Amino acid sequence: MKVLTFWVWAFGFAILKHIWENHPKEKFYAYEVNEAITSSIRTNREHPFFFPWHKLPKNVKLLEEYESILWSVDLIIIAVPAQYIKDLIDRIAPRLSSGIVILNLAKWIDIEHNKTISSLLEDSLKNITFEYCVFSGWVFAAELIEWKYLWADLWVTNRKVWNEVKKLLVSHNLDVRVQDHYLDIELYGSFKNIIAIMVWYYQWKWEWLSTISYHIFAFLEELKEVVKLYWWDADNIDFSSYSLWGDLITTCFWDSRNRYLWRLLGSWKSIGDALTILKSENKHSEWYETIKAIHKTIGSRGGFKITKFFYDLMT
């Protein structure tokens, strides 16, 4: 299987190292736009910002350009910061061949078009057939690269491809549960960022844990109505997946980007200043874009009290 990964930031670097360790005889390809990252990997195979002492093996080939091999790629891994995904999809779409498998690692709703990543792909890849997968769960790049025991869900649009993709990802330290419905994970994978922000807000307010739990479940009920605004068949979507609860628990207890963002806001920095600090440290937080996208979907509708409160509070 010919695999090409866009880009080699934190999770892109970790997933490349992980899949190579599972398949050391295979050659994998990657493309990155950040000159500091490309220079460091080509020089010493290390990431310049994250994971000191960890190296990408030489079997992972960092490309100077990707256009010439796109037509022959079997699987594309999208490890791109969410706000850049639409531009990437539009650029690579004309060169992809029918049958391509696209594995998405990002959790995000595009605020400009108010669509999830699968919807953006459907719009851009109308002229070819493709299979879509979403990988999500309690998996952080730093834990994956340190071989911690982890669980995740793999959502696929077609069961014919799930064996190959699962085989690529599963290892002695990563267990993958395969599902065949992906719309809920795209939405709830994004929503958990807002839930995490809620948790830290109420902790900052010195609320009791039982009160925090109440707010979480009240918000989950509200989110069911939000989902219905995106897809009419949302009644079959539930909250039982690893990708919601595992990711949410990990986000709340690990020193995640969302938690770091709340610490900045809790120290009385404005949202603009907080995002500037994140950018200066080569970090991205999808939460800010997600809550704007949800608020745009709600529009002038009544209800959605919690969502509107946190939108007003955090923007």
Key attributes of the depicted protein:
10 strands, 2 domains, N-(1-d-carboxylethyl)-l-norvaline Dehydrogenase, domain 2, two-stranded antiparallel sheet, 315 residues
Brief sketch in words of this structure:
Helix content is 49%, strand content 14%. The chain has 315 residues and is an alpha/beta fold. Helix 7 runs parallel beside helix 10, helix 10 packs across helix 11 (271-280) and helix 12 packs across helix 13 (305-314).
Care to describe what's here?
The protein has helices at residues 10-22, 35-44, 85-92, 117-124, 141-145, 159-169, 183-204, 209-230, 242-253, 257-266, 271-280, 287-298, 305-314, and strands spanning 3-6, 28-31, 60-62, 75-78, 100-104, 109-110, 115-116, 130-137, 150-156, 174-179. By secondary structure, the protein is α/β, with parallel strands linked by helices. The chain folds into two domains: 3-180, 3-Layer(aba) Sandwich (Rossmann fold), CATH 3.40.50.720; 184-314, N-(1-d-carboxylethyl)-l-norvaline Dehydrogenase, domain 2 (Orthogonal Bundle), CATH 1.10.1040. β1, α1 (10-22) and β2 form a beta-alpha-beta unit. α7 runs antiparallel to α8 (209-230), α7 (183-204) packs parallel to α9 (242-253) and α10 crosses α11 (271-280). It starts with a strand and ends with a helix.
